[in-house]
Amino acid sequence: MANATDHLWMHFTRMASYSAGEVPTIVRGDGAYVWDAQGRRYLDGLAGLFVVNAGHGRTELAEAAAKQAGELAYFPLWSYAHPTAIELAEKVAALAPGDLNRVFFTTGGSEAVEAAWKLARAYFKRTGKPTKYKVVSRYIAYHGTSMGALSITGLPGIKTDFEPLVPGGIKVPNTNFYRAPEHGDDPEAFGRWAADEIGRAIEREGPDTVAAVFLEPVQNSGGCFPPPPGYFQRVREICDAYDVLLVSDEVICSWGRLGEYFGATRYGYQPDIITTAKGITSGYAPLGAMIASDRLMEPFLSETGMFAHGVTFGGHPVSCAVALANLEVFARENLVGHVRANEGAFRSTLEKLTDLPIVGDVRGDGYFYGIELVKDKATRETFDEAESERLLRGFLSTALFQAGLYCRADDRGDPVVQLAPPLIAGQQQFDEIEQILRTVLTEAWSRL
Ligand SMILES: Cc1ncc(COP(=O)(O)O)c(C=O)c1O
């Protein structure tokens, strides 16, 4: 639409890049596909932004929203409750692993991360360890954009403009096995090393200053780094040894993305807190949550105790109604089971692309994959900044979109193409993704 750039300030967008061209404007969705204002169809290879897990065009979710808005559009969760928040909290607690039974609703992921850091600090203040406030997280990991969440984020490129940030954000290596600085031939030893780096960071900082470790089950930014075998088990041991909370940031990795309701379940570890958002409503309304263990709520249950934190729209009745309807769809259609049954086919279809000279690595789990692009497969040499700019920003994103595939070409770490389609996707969509990528990546290689 011609007036798209007049007033609309788009997020993480180089606005100038649209000064001549048109902003792609998406007007409709159905299943795994979306349509733009010109009527062109695109395969939604990223579920919007890792959000539309149940797929587009679910009128039953729209109807749940309308019904709730007609009945009770809004009431806060500040000293009052409403039925959909109560029911949803119960449901989420039942699905979450172990004793993660306390659900604090937010409107999105950054707020969930923010709430989790605040809870970690407040918990230790109330349990006799008031100097524990720092957070350990991983290089290149994205945990959101509000000032606390941004401090936990490990991407210098999106932080420097806003410094000084919240003090206490400590960074450790991620689990990029393809570029492992040590143990590159042994995933287990690499996992042990990467987990122990967390222990070493806690030691360096002083265990009495560290409150929490924030980790995604599969790190998104950098291009889908799954945990090596044993990694989370070792991290759990370290957290227990130093009395540090393990926060599983599952803003992307919950609600079926990895073939389980929660990523922690998939990899068999027990966090103290899970942060979530996105797929909880499949995007039909905004919602996030911090899910905490019973132990963490205890200090706030005294007569005058209170977690002094909240947001007006956290646990909005319409969003909670939509989440309940969304989880009904999940159960009825066994979407989580569908991912488990089809993830092998998704992986092997994407792995066909490894015959291309530009494809260095295909990695991920469930319906969550990164394809790392390289200049030289044998040496794993990556692109320099100018090449990366030309390839990813200048060519790939647009070319993939024009060929009918919406996905992400990202260079916040090494250059990757990322895929996370709606969970209803099957072989037909996998093939379509593979074919479009094959054509466009071949063209990209010829331009280098
Ligand atoms: C792991 C993780 N944490 C936090 C966030 C922030 O969520 P939001 O954009 O809803 O604030 C994101 C967003 O992509 C994320 O992937």
UniProtKB/TrEMBL annotation:
Q: Does the keyword Transferase apply?
A: yes
Q: Which CDD domains match?
A: OAT_like
Q: State the SUPFAM superfamilies in the record.
A: PLP-dependent transferases (SSF53383)
For the keyword Transferase, the answer is yes
In alphabetical order, the GO MF annotations are: transaminase activity
Q: Which family does it belong to?
A: Belongs to the class-III pyridoxal-phosphate-dependent aminotransferase family.
Q: Which UniProt keywords apply?
A: Aminotransferase, Pyridoxal phosphate, Transferase
Which protein are we looking at? Aspartate aminotransferase family protein
Classification via InterPro entries: Aminotrans_3 (IPR005814), PyrdxlP-dep_Trfase (IPR015424), PyrdxlP-dep_Trfase_major (IPR015421), PyrdxlP-dep_Trfase_small (IPR015422)
Which parts of the chain are coiled coil?
none
* Superkingdom, natural source: Bacteria
